[in-house]
From TrEMBL:
SUPFAM superfamilies: Alkaline phosphatase-like. This is Non-specific phospholipase C6. Residues 1-21 form the signal peptide. It comes from Buddleja alternifolia. Belongs to the bacterial phospholipase C family.
């Protein structure tokens, strides 16, 4: 009997030593996530297969789509400034991916584009030459590119952004206005980090879209929101970046303050400049040797990609079904998007395709972000949904070197603008910008007015929307901090009341 007890003790001890060793091997203490807007893999980096690395699953120029067997358009390398915005609603993506068949043949992009505008059919079948996206060209050659990373649903921005930090869109396949006032109710990776005693920060430029999650409006999180221009460089320089750093780009295009989110009609050169700035800031930080930067795109924005979207054995996250008429079961992924990862622990020129698990059908998609954060930080919290429990994780990308590289570039190339026309601050809002205005209206208390949600954004131009959003965010943050001073419960949420003053109440 004594021998059996001794054996058990030895096994327990050896397993604890193994866990300790694993933790020692994990070099990453800070994950930085930047999600840009509406571009496919082939559109942004597909041509790098030819000029940079033949092992990238990119394009050759032989990829074509036809419309009615009369108009055939093949993929070319002359992408430039894009305006207007291609279609990327749930219905549009269905047509792009399936064409007229029942399998995801990726054959309907030209036909869907033609249904919107005659000129768009050429636009959606173009990719950038590597020299026109010099920041990505450098990062792909120096670090890692994922050539099989998909958006989480075949649909637009908002549901895909929700998946990035919560592994579900709570049944949304588009923007659901009635959900907006209360906020999406699901648990997030921010909640998991907080309950495990780890810090996070959201560094925003116009508005933190993470406020679409209801939990993120709680008073206990209000000091996690930072203005990017005031705090990001300072925190990086002082070695104060938290375990998870979220960077939100500028979503409104103004003269002297251009949008840098890559959403058409914005110039991707400004997105490149943002990535350059983030990289160079991290590279100069004392935290560089323990940092992993993740750059991805919410969805493909209607631009062509040749890789079939996965449609077999993709798990529904939480039992929710999409609305009529499709009643989407969340059982297939969206179109492939560019995802680049940067760390001194990554081998030069790494290309990552299919994950090693956790199931034979697992794929890299946006839920891979919370799934990997759970692994990297050894979180005791449960998985958020069935989807992040299934998604491929990428901690191994930083697991192959025994010490951090010292040859990573300190400065990235300069970026030339692609747009030749002047910024039009008077143009109407994109669908996504309209959604951002609606979020701002909730933060401002204007959703209690009779004209909400009667498309407030439709009455605004870009400049007006920017001013409105900035004021609303500032007022909400100020009122929340005031509520904390007054002793409000940390789990309460501030409800602003529409008024010329900043009257507010708070509730659980």
């Amino acid at each position: 009997m004594r021998g059996i007890i001794l054996l058990i003790v030895v096994v327990v001890c050896s397993s604890s030593v193994f866990i300790q060793t694993q933790e020692q091997q994990q070099p990453i203490k800070s994950v930085v996530v930047l999600v840009l807007e509406n571009r496919s893999f082939d559109h942004m980096v597909g041509w790098m297969k030819k000029s940079l690395n033949p092992s990238i699953n990119g394009v050759t120029g032989k990829e074509c789509n036809s419309a009615n067997k009369q108009k055939i358009v093949c993929f070319s390398d002359d992408a430039e400034y894009v305006d207007p915005d291609p279609g990327h609603s749930f219905e549009a993506v269905q047509q792009q991916v399936f064409g007229s068949g029942s399998l995801p043949s990726m054959s309907g992009f030209v036909e869907q584009a033609l249904s919107m505008s005659q000129n768009l059919s050429e636009t959606v079948m173009k990719g950038f030459r590597p020299e026109n996206v010099p920041i990505y060209t450098t990062l792909v050659s120096e670090f890692a590119v994922f050539d099989r990373w998909f958006s989480s649903i075949p649909g637009p921005t908002q549901p895909n952004r929700l998946f990035v930090y919560s592994a579900t869109s709570h049944g949304s396949t588009s923007h659901v206005k009635k959900q907006l006032a209360t906020g999406y109710p699901q648990q997030t990776i921010f909640d998991s980090l907080h309950s495990n005693g780890l810090d996070f920060g959201v560094y925003f430029q116009n508005i933190p879209t993470t406020l679409f999650y209801r939990n993120m409006r709680k008073l206990k999180y209000i000091f996690k929101f930072h203005q990017y221009d005031l705090k990001f460089k300072k925190d990086a320089r002082n070695g104060k970046l938290p375990s998870l750093t979220v960077i939100e780009p500028r979503y409104f295009d103004l003269k002297g303050l251009p949008a840098n989110d890559d959403h058409p009609s914005h110039d991707v050169a400004h997105g490149q400049k943002l990535v350059k700035e983030v990289y160079e800031t991290l590279r100069a930080s004392p935290q560089w040797n323990e940092t992993l930067l993740v750059i991805t795109y919410d969805e493909h924005g209607g631009f062509y990609d040749h890789v079939q979207t996965p449609y077999v054995n993709v798990p529904n996250p939480d039992g929710n079904t999409g609305p009529a008429p499709y009643f989407f079961k969340f059982d297939r992924l969206g179109v492939r998007v560019p995802t680049i990862m940067v760390s001194p622990w990554i081998k030069k020129g790494t290309v990552i395709s299919k994950p090693r698990g956790p199931t034979p059908d697992s794929e890299f998609e946006h839920s891979s972000i919370p799934a990997t954060i759970k692994k990297i930080f050894n979180l005791s919290s449960n998985f958020l949904t069935h989807r992040d429990a299934w998604a491929g994780t990428f901690e191994q990308v930083v697991g192959e070197l025994t010490s951090p590289r010292t040859d990573c570039p300190e400065v990235l190339p300069d970026v030339a603008p692609l747009r030749r026309t002047e910024t039009n601050e008077n143009r109407g809002l994109s669908e996504f910008q309209g959604e951002v205005v609606q979020l701002a209206a909730v933060l401002n208390g204007d959703h209690f007015l009779s004209n909400f949600p009667a498309e407030m954004g439709k009455k605004m131009n870009v400049k007006e929307a920017h001013e409105y959003v900035r004021g609303a965010v500032s007022r909400f943050i100020r009122a929340s901090k005031e509520a904390i001073k007054l002793g409000a419960d940390q789990s309460a949420i501030v409800d602003m009341r529409s008024s010329l003053t900043t009257r507010s109440s708070f509730h659980n």
